[in-house]
Amino acid sequence: MGFTINKKKRYVVSSVLAAGIFVAGGSLAIATGIGSSTGTTVTVCADNTTGALHYLASGTCDAGETSLVLGKEGPRGPRGQQGLTGPAGPTGDSGATGAPGATGATGATGATGATGARGPRGATGATGAAGPRGSRGPAGPAGADGADGADGADGADGADGADGADGADGADGADGADGADGADGADGADGADGAPGSNATIACDNDGTAGTVTSITLDGTGAIVAVVCTPN
What we know:
3-stranded antiparallel β-sheet, 1 helix, disordered N terminus, mainly beta
């Protein structure tokens, strides 16, 4: 009699295979080494109706159950797709310095370089020894006139000559500028008193009341600065 497991029941069996843990008869059973290369296997009984599993310690499964052996190594599956490239790892430590290489062959002579810039002028060399005296040369042309010499010192004064005849009178000179003003003269005597003036009738205190002037005060220029009047 064959045994068929639907998707739901297959999920239960896969969980047991993946975890290696299941419950049988109220106790916890752990299968170690399932699917490993040690050959350890676990026998379980699967209910043909419900797909429920329980561990079979010994003997055979009951009627209506199918015996399953877990832990057998199945056939190798197809190769999976290549995974994504992982992130770059950290830079490794620098390697040890290698031994010096052999000396290479001498290269060909390079082209002549451009002429360098002119160097600075060297220091003046020491004066050489005097050479032998040469023969006398021909006379040279006459030189240009030299510059005038400095003036000589003045001679001593001669004796005074005789007085000449008087010359004619010269024309009159222009008038001189006016002299400064003289000091003020002394004050003259006071003049005689004038005749008394007649009393004038004016408006007293500007209130429209007629009155008689009894006193007038003048300033230095003769202007009236105050008037005292008595009402009539």
